[in-house]
Protein: DUF799 family lipoprotein
Amino acid sequence: MKRFLSTIGIGLSLLFLGGCASGNLDIYRDQNMDFGAVRTVAVLPFANLTRDNTSSERVRDVFTTMLLATGGVYALPPGEVARGVIRTGVANAAAPSVEEAVKLGGVLKVDALITGVVREYGEVRSSTSTANVISLSMQMVETQTGRVVWTATATEGGIGVTDRLFGGGGRPMNEITEKAVNEIINKLF
Structure:
């Protein structure tokens, strides 16, 4: 009986201790970074890991617009960012090196760069059901040191229980894109 009670006690202790873990696993914020000092950012072209060739441009456009709408920071227009990338000779604008990030920050006169990866975008199928899905990751690079100071991920859409039971095509792509981008922005602020 004692062994049984001690086993239950240990099990309950592990259960409660597991519930004490803090923080999101899909977000990183550098504790030494003063995010209030970031006033101007450059949103670089996003990497595209999907079959849709224009998905990264669409998501970048939605992200930049929603970021500007917050009023928290100013995002440079895409043409200015492209001009800075060409002027500095950044080899891969979606993933600049530390030196390239510092150099690009100086040329564009921004406090931070935001890069991103669109991992999934579009329709997914399972049996007779289809739905739209988006999955993205973004990071902020401070331009004085080239350090990554924030990173977050978001996934929206997919095939839910109601889609499996009743069919249907899920939510529209623009709706889940806006929801995923809004989730990312909320993790930034």
Summary: Strands lie at 27-29, 40-43, 47-48, 74-75, 112-126, 129-142, 148-157. The radius of gyration is 21 Å. The helical segments are 2-18, 55-70, 78-88, 98-108, 161-166, 173-188. DSSP finds six helices and seven strands in the chain.
